[in-house]
Amino acid sequence: MASARIGARALRDLLGDWRNEAPAYEGLADRVTLLLLDGRISSGSRLPAERELAAALELSRTTVAAAYRRLREAGYASSLQGSGTTTALPHGRSEEPAPGDAPISFTHASLPATRLLTGVLDDGLIDEYRSHFGSLGYDGVGQPGLRAAVADWYGRRGLPTDPEQIVITTGSQNAIHLAARALIARGDRVWAESPSYPNAFDSLRDVGARLITTPVTVDDGWDLDTLEATFRRSAPTVAYVIPDFQNPTGRSMSVRDRERFLEAAAGAGTTVLADEATAELDIDRGIRHPPLGALAGRHGADVVHIGSASKSVWGGLRIGWVRAEPQLARRIAAGRGATDLGVPIFEQLVAARLLPKSDEVAEERRAQLREGREVARSAIEELLPDWTFPARLDGGLAAWVNLGAPVSSQLALAARARGLLIAAGPRFGVDGAFERYARIPIAADPVALRRGIELIAEIWPSVRRVTRGELDYAGTVA
Ligand SMILES: Cc1ncc(COP(=O)(O)O)c(C=O)c1O
């Protein structure tokens, strides 16, 4: 997410290839709107002065002034005499669906609650909840029962764990942020995959990380040669990695990838922040990898694990955790007071009852994700022949689909106008790349998934037409 004041060059990089067949002021305003709506620019950010942006984009100042006027008129910016133009979100506008609009949302890759959830909401749970009423009811580390259940879960997966190593958090998003804050100082270099989970980029930037990335692709996975060279050269403080069913590519590291990655991290003195929130979402990978840290000892790498009940049990519980060495776990817990004082007890009691059933939950998820994958694949193959659905997608929540043309932001804007929310590909990168990609959530409700893809197919011919490359080729645009 961009900071409060955006420089002209930074905005130019964020804008990417923003021109379309509309007048320039309109195309520019529309692209800024999209950046604002999908979180790449935050509300309240000060835009560059008209003259500076005009110079950076090689436009006339009148064009930039007209674009800013258009933003103001639509409520996406405001200007105060002498203090420039500041972005704003008109009431109710964001990536969240507005109540009553009933749009289809492809922006979240999440499943509804497991069927097993109802089964644990019994009198025993209420009695247990009541038994806590005489206590304070919250603390920085989490309920002993849930910490023990999480520690057991790691043990069953091949990484013996003491409950002392577990800190319960508000979803794994909070876990990423708390771990990042404990491990990273302002200005530290931090490695991440590109593309990756955008809210993690936001957390890492928030603690002052300078992000460096190397690629992971749908077809080839992690580019470990480049990664090893990057680690040797840059010695990042932290490496944030999603080893299983990576968001958004869906790829998983092979055993060999894991070995090379851990060796590179150990060699560079880099602490690995392994986000395993999606690790249980296997459709037909056919191999269950232990948590990354189970292999780390051989290489001497430090691995801090991030986990979550959101993807398996339910995102609505907001239960996640960090697994770290006891001393670091204590430091993480001690440092959280500035942002939160702990996690609601009821949800922790629920999660503690469901974690032991994780194999049963995984079977349910497997069936749901398999159905979503087939619905998405067949709808795309039938209706969007320009697109390439991943040849191999054996788990995870989403498909990283190649659109065949650099029009993802145009697509996101056009889709929004038709009631479909979808994050543009560049939201998953750090430097405006990925205009050729969109993330299609296979976790979405199958009927909404099919309908959303049908909607895209309806607008696709007009979106496809505006690619500059094609217009250049046709000779209609200089
Ligand atoms: C890779 C990854 N990590 C973390 C999260 C955060 O999820 P939660 O805070 O619900 O656990 C997500 C959510 O989409 C994710 O995809």
From TrEMBL:
Region (Disordered): 79-105
Keyword set includes Transcription: yes
Listed CDD domains: AAT_like (cd00609), WHTH_GntR (cd07377)
Superkingdom classification of source: Bacteria
Polar residues biased stretches: 79-88
Species this chain originates from: Gryllotalpicola reticulitermitis
Keywords: Aminotransferase, DNA-binding, Pyridoxal phosphate, Transcription, Transcription regulation, Transferase
Annotated family: In the C-terminal section; belongs to the class-I pyridoxal-phosphate-dependent aminotransferase family.
Protein name stated in the entry: PLP-dependent aminotransferase family protein
SUPFAM superfamilies linked: PLP-dependent transferases, Winged helix' DNA-binding domain
Pfam families registered for this protein in UniProt: Aminotran_1_2, GntR
MF GO annotations: transaminase activity
Entries under Gene3D superfamilies matching the protein: Aspartate Aminotransferase, domain 1 (3.90.1150.10), Type I PLP-dependent aspartate aminotransferase-like (Major domain) (3.40.640.10), Winged helix-like DNA-binding domain superfamily/Winged helix DNA-binding domain (1.10.10.10)
Keyword Chloroplast: no
